[in-house]
Amino acid sequence: MEACCCNLEVDVNGEETFMVDKTVITQYSNKFARLFGKSSGATGKLKVIFHDFPGGAEGFELMLKFCYNNGTADINPSNLFLARCAAEYMEMKEPMADVSNLLEQTEKSLQEISYWTWSDILIGLKQCQSLLVPDSSVMVERCLDTIVGRLVLASEASPCPSTSSTDSSWVRYSCDSKSTESVKTSFSRLTWWFEDLLFLSPLLVAMLVKSMLLRKMDHLVISKFLLYYQKAKFSTATTHEKCKIIEMVIDMHYDMDLSCVPCKTLFGILRVTLGLNISKCSRNKLETMIGSQLDQATLDNLLVPSPHGISYLYDVNLILRFLKAFLRRGNSLVTPIRMRKVASLIDLYIAEIAPDPCLKTSKFLALATAIPDSARDSYDELYHAMDMYLEVHTQLSQEERLKICCGLNFEKLSPQACLHLSQNKKFPSKSTVQALISQQSKLKNLLHVIPSTSSYNDSPCSSSGAAAQKGKKDKTSEQVVLYSGNFDLSTDNEKLKAHLQGMQWRVMELEKFCRKMQIQMAKITKSKASGHSYAKSLPKLCS
Asked: What is a single cellular component term in the Gene Ontology annotation (predicted)?
């Protein structure tokens, strides 16, 4: 280019200055044609400063080569997206004579992307990502769609494991159809591309995954890729970058079929978020996903440390939110079996956190009452957890102890637990009486009252037939035995007979004790003003 033709100075993003012939450039660029339309007769040199030219000096130089080569350029996957962004920025749309303008030529090349090699697509995608201009979004989508299409075909054709290499072809098909191939090898055939796509930003990964979901790719494979990406990126990421990465991972899992995402995976993501200040929206999504699969969790999963500033050891509020998410799904999805699993899990959790001296009564009670009563067949585990809690929290008032006992359904306590409670000084006396009365009511429904017979004359509760007949006449004491139905108490079943007789005796003792308690309660009501201690007046049950 002769010196006299260099009548325009162009500063490109402060990177480099070019001396160009404005007449040549304006033939192809509508932007320059508008800019210099009114100054075509101006003398001297002009200067143009670009602050946001896509691709910087490299992109501008590529555009210049096209202009000075009479509308021809060597466009290939390594510079296609750079040339296209430059063409769109300079508005190089109108054809010149018989030559297509730069934008049209790049569009034709882009339409051939389906014939590119795998490595060419990755090179183009890297360049697209580096441009960081709005005009590149359409090209990025085309690249990502092409990648997903290749991966879908690869998974259907059972491709061989690939290494991350720009020399590899877009897919390598397996010719090995041996039925003895291991599951591990089979899975590696679906994950060979993980390493190749680690250069993607979280934004592009999100776009990629959305495209994968639309194309019905295996959700388990997608989840594996997201976790692989997160782990690889975290090694060099800043705290802010880690937040963006894990938020993207959570958001993408939220769009998947959760039946394909193991509960263990979700708790693994939760552990990663503990030290990060992620958005409330992403955190809510994660908790909702975990809550919906709470019946698959283990006790170790739930033992999440409390956040900074909270005195108690484990994050009880988090577990309450999990429970809320689980119960919010309704009866159509929460079956009785699933509900019982969660109830058992929560009882184990309560027992684990009960010894924590910093655990507030309100939090303990909230956990105890969060599960519907129908989900528990027995309240024994919860009773033992309450026993531990009261043993540690000796400073609790009588009112607070009564509140805790409100979480118990006394009718679902076993006889053993009821007996233990009746002698447990840590529990309020009112709860002790309530437990025994409820147990008595339960026993009356389960037991059948019958007179003494010769079949049971060995019972410790029936010393003689005359005594039994006398008791039958005056109605003051009835012999209570388990309803035996068609039990065979022959000599071949002595162990069962002994067991039933033992139960007879225990039931009798319980009923005697309950009657005594009721008498004492009546006396206390009459003598309330005298100030006698109710606890001292309670009779002691013989063990």
From this structure: endomembrane system
- Is 52:11 a contact under the CB 8 Å cutoff? no
Residues in the chain: 543
Is residue 457 a contact partner of residue 465, using CB atoms and an 8 Å limit? yes
What tens digit of pLDDT does each residue of 336-374 get?
Answer: 999 999 999 999 999 999 999 999 999 999 999 999 999
Q: How far apart are CA 370 and CA 372, in angstroms?
A: 7
The structural architecture, per CATH, of the domain 8-117 is 2-Layer Sandwich (3.30)
Taking a C-beta distance cutoff of 8 angstroms, is the pair 398, 384 a contact? no
Map residue 284 onto helix, strand or coil: helix
Q: Which residue do the tokens 């049950």 mark?
A: 541
Give pTM, 2 decimals.
0.73
Residue 483 has a pLDDT of 38
Distant-in-sequence, close-in-space partners of 171: CB < 8 Å, separation ≥ 6: 118, 150, 153, 154, 157, 159
Q: Helix, strand, coil shares of the chain as percentages rounded to 5?
A: 60, 5, 35
CA 134, 135, 140, 141: dihedral to nearest 10 degrees? 90
Q: Helix H segments across 111-159?
A: 118-131, 137-156
pLDDT tens digits for range 97-116: 778 889 999 988 888 898 89
